[in-house]
Design a protein that fits this description.
Layout lengths: L9 H23 L22 E2 L2 E9 L2 E8 L4 E8 L4 E9 L15 H12 L17
């Protein structure tokens, strides 16, 4: 005998809730699916062009602290291969050019004012890469007190 009064049994309610949960799971799986066999409900994410953080068009600027109370910025011009330093003067309330340097030829130096010498580093790396020395198993044991 069917119940026509509009009151549904707890079993029917549980079946409806179960069907709704299965439908939600199917939607979630379709949305998250990276497999090309299944259609995705979300559009594909496309890479966005992001601007340079510190500059662009070959000129970059970066804030810096030169000493305890000295602040300023570094200006790097990639095209002209120049590095400039500007310091903020709080009394004058302006930036003052402290130094500028063209680094075109600096990059060609192999070793300048460095420690340890790159040759020493090369020797250490070669020593590390060589196989370790093996002890002779036939040699008598060494007495450290002799």
């Amino acid at each position: 005998m069917s119940n026509m009064t509009g009151n549904t049994s707890p079993v029917v309610k549980a079946l409806y809730v179960n069907a709704a949960l299965v439908a939600v799971l199917i939607v979630v799986l379709l949305v998250r699916s990276s497999d090309s066999r299944w259609p995705s409900l979300l559009p594909a994410a496309m890479a966005q062009n992001q601007g340079n953080i510190a500059g662009g068009a070959g000129i970059y600027i970066m804030p810096g602290q030169f000493s305890t109370n000295a602040w300023g910025c570094y200006l790097l011009d990639v095209d002209l291969q120049t590095l400039c330093l500007y310091q903020y003067m709080p009394g004058d309330r302006n930036l003052r050019l402290i130094s500028a340097r063209n680094f075109q030829y600096d990059r060609r130096l192999k070793m300048y004012n460095t420690d340890p010498d790159p040759e020493v580093i090369r020797e250490l790396i070669e020593k590390q890469a060589s196989p370790p020395r093996q002890m002779n198993p036939d040699a008598p044991p060494v007495n450290p007190e002799q």
